[in-house]
Amino acid sequence: MKKVLFLIVFSVLTISNLFADEEKNPKIRVADLPGLRPNFKMTFENGEPQDILVETTDGRTHMLMVGGFVHNPNKFPMGVLYGLDDDKSAYIVSNQKMEDIKRIEVGLRDERGGRHSLEWKNPSHTFNKAFWALNVVMVGAVIYDMETTLYTFRKCAEYKEMVSCREGDPLLRPFIKHGRPAIYAFQAAVTAGRIYMAYRLRKQGKHLRWIVPTIVAMGIHSAYGSKNLMVVWKLDL
Q: Domain locations in the chain?
């Protein structure tokens, strides 16, 4: 029952966080442009850029614009920033691939003269080592839980005259009698959903909101797997 409650709470909180603040926050849109040379275009919503900082995948940072003026375009080491005629909401960076950009930080001035900052993180870098490491460990915890569950039921069958076993998770319970393929299919769907929601949250920059649920899921499956082994250990005494 505890696993069911966790799954419901996890799903509700994560789905609600996926779309939180998306509508009220201004955005930066970045896209590659076709052509012989690498170029990408930045479009800013709800404001005019005053400062533009770009961090590349090699860890260097570059100021493209300072105080509304292009910063040393002839000396710019990663490319050149160009405005699009009178449109102050769109700029092109030439001689630079979008895939080499890690993040873009922009200071904007709105129509009322107010200032606010935006940050764009390259979604192609969402699947980094930390993301995969945590999710691989979580998948390992899920497999540990499933295999110890199956092992426990096999042991219970050997001692059926002394004890009867029952799956505590009502969502998983109908799949137990169908064996390993059914259990793995069910847990694969649930785990894939968790990883996808974690990906969406990380892509939006909500790091704690994807890390904490992933670690909690890892801990719950590990705890239940260990609990299964304790049941087997008591049966063998």
A: 2-20+126-236, 34-122
The C-alpha atoms of residue 165 and residue 157 are separated, in whole angstroms, by 8
For the domain spanning 34-122, the CATH number is 2.60.40.10
Give residue-wise pLDDT tens across range 104-121. Answer: 888 877 667 677 777 777
Angstrom CA distances, 34 to 56, 73, 98, 103, stand at 21, 22, 12, 21
Secondary-structure percent of the chain, ordered helix, strand, coil, rounded to 5: 50, 25, 25
The answer to whether residues 72 and 56 touch, using CB atoms and an 8 Å cutoff, is no
Distance separating alpha carbons of residues 233 and 237, to the nearest angstrom: 6
Give the model's confidence band at 223: pLDDT under 50 very low, under 70 low, under 90 confident, else very high: very high
Provide the whole-model pTM: 0.59
With contact defined as beta carbons under 8 Å apart, do 81 and 74 qualify? Answer: no
DSSP string, 157-199: HHTTTT-----S-TTTHHHHTT-HHHHHHHHHHHHHHHHHHHH
Closest CA to 10 of 232, 234, 217: 217
